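Input (structure):
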């Protein structure tokens, strides 16, 4: 069992949505439960405990980073519970990944296929890859005045998205750069929460972005090669679809749900959810957290990403030793 630590921040536990339950037979041993479960599950609740070995409190944003430019109040677990926008139910339990094409080449299959496999693990739902959709004639576009690259209006793309009857959500994925409105320079992705659809771009996640009108997929120019691109693609996909579950940007921890203004900041963003955002997601899906992490571990081993493997092995070991 876990031994109580005097420095535990009870206010932080409240933000996360877990409670300490003192063992009747001991004054030093603590158990944990999520506030939303009627029957406590000590193992899953332990995965939401903010061990400093695994989770870092959000650092003060530097100039040019997301929180230095955007005023965001964050979202506690209680606030999330009161404002859940959507959840899978009935027939609506499938996530669709739709390759969108404008002027550029489509997202390559060797990225799209593992993306769909990771989405199935991360969201614990069936995933379908839809047919490529060519949309260059359907939405407004422009040439970015700073980078001279071709962009399309992401808001207009969302208005054209079709949502199948069995879809929880539809996520369009493209190599084309996006902008949300004329006054914005660009956006990595955009979601219509009420319409259960979103779109995100891989263009600015490639190091050769801006070298031509349309970004060309070239893993040879990336440090870490194709594995780096896959990591970035998985992160932005899970981040954007996470918004469609009602998760707002995280301001409490270094987390997958942190906002980002540029590639450097996005690369520093963790691949995994912090305790708060994990508990929000667990509240909806009720998956076995340990089994979910084990599946992620195998995925990242296969695709040669040792940092993700190391973090997952450490997290599993910490929770196992605490029970």
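Output (sequence):
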């Amino acid at each position: 069992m876990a031994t109580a630590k005097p420095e535990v921040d009870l206010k932080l536990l409240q933000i996360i949505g877990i409670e300490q339950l003192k063992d009747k037979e001991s004054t030093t041993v603590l158990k944990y439960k999520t506030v939303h479960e009627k029957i406590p599950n000590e193992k899953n609740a332990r995965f939401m405990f903010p061990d400093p070995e695994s989770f870092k409190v959000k650092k003060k944003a530097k100039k040019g980073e997301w929180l230095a430019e955007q005023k965001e109040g964050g979202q506690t677990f209680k606030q999330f519970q009161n404002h859940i926008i959507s959840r899978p139910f009935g027939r609506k339990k499938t996530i669709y990944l739709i390759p969108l094409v404008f002027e550029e080449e489509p997202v390559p299959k060797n990225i799209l296929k593992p993306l769909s496999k990771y989405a199935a693990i991360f969201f614990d739902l069936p995933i379908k890859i839809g047919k490529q959709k060519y949309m260059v004639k359907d939405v407004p576009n422009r040439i970015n005045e700073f980078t001279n690259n071709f962009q399309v209006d992401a808001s207009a793309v969302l208005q054209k998205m079709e949502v199948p009857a069995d879809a929880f959500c539809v996520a369009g994925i493209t190599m084309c750069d996006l902008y949300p409105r004329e006054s914005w320079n660009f956006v990595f992705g955009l979601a219509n929460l009420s319409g259960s659809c979103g779109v995100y771009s891989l263009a600015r996640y490639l190091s050769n972005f801006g070298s031509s009108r349309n970004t060309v997929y070239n893993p040879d120019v990336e440090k870490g090669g194709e594995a780096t691109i896959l990591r970035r693609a998985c992160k932005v996909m899970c981040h954007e679809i996470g918004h469609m579950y009602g998760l707002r940007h995280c301001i409490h921890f270094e987390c997958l749900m942190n906002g980002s203004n540029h590639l450097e900041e996005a690369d520093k963003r963790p691949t995994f959810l912090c305790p708060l955002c994990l508990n929000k997601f667990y509240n909806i899906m009720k998956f076995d957290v340990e089994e979910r992490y084990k599946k992620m571990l195998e995925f990242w081993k296969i695709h040669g990403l040792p940092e993700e493997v190391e973090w997952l092995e450490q997290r599993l070991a910490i929770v196992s030793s605490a029970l």
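Notes: DSSP finds eleven helices and twelve strands in the chain. The mean pLDDT is 90.
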